[in-house]
Amino acid sequence: MEPAFTLGILYGCGCGFRTAQYFEQLAAYYLKSMSRVRVLIALTGKAERSVAACLLEQRAKHSGLEVTVVLTARQWREYLQNVSHGKAAECNPIIDAADRREVMKRCAERFSPRSCSGCLSSVATCSFFKNTMPGRRWSDCCANC
């Protein structure tokens, strides 16, 4: 089996449907020439949960699209314990629906930018970093493509 072309969304992304649509279109572009495209996304906040949920819905439309969620040890523990309140209530359905789950052992409680970039950039073919400067476009943030 051909290895998946992997898009890593590192430590945050823009909120909402437009960001999810951007990554869906990016995955569709790569699926034209590759059989599998995996999107790695750390569930660091509400925006990432929103994007992950949207991408999971798009798998029916794009047969080679895979979604892998990256979790802290705490998120994984709460998932296994079926915690049903707070952030776990939002994360658990996404974790359940994901194609794969990667648990970051070094991040017991929460993500840090250094831990995310170190983990995801080592396995991602193309990485996207959160841009904190207003007015910049996602295309300006592409690294390692």
The string of secondary-structure elements, in order, is EHEHEHHEHEE
Mean pLDDT: 76
Largest sheet composition: 6 strands, mixed
Any idea what the radius of gyration is?
14 Å
Q: What is the element layout, followed by pairings?
A:
Layout: E1 5-10, H1 17-31, E2 37-42, H2 46-58, E3 65-72, H3 73-80, H4 87-97, E4 100-104, H5 113-123, E5 126-129, E6 142-143
Parallel strand pairs: 1-2, 1-5, 2-3, 3-4
Antiparallel strand pairs: 5-6
Brief account:
With 145 residues, the chain is α/β, with parallel strands linked by helices. Helix content is 40%, strand content 21%.
Description of the molecule:
- The protein has 145 residues and is of the alpha/beta class.
- The chain has helices spanning 17-31, 46-58, 73-80, 87-97, 113-123, and strands at residues 5-10, 37-42, 65-72, 100-104, 126-129, 142-143.
- Helix 2 links the parallel strand 2 and strand 3.
Features:
alpha/beta; disordered C terminus; 145 residues; six-stranded mixed β-sheet; 40% helix; globular
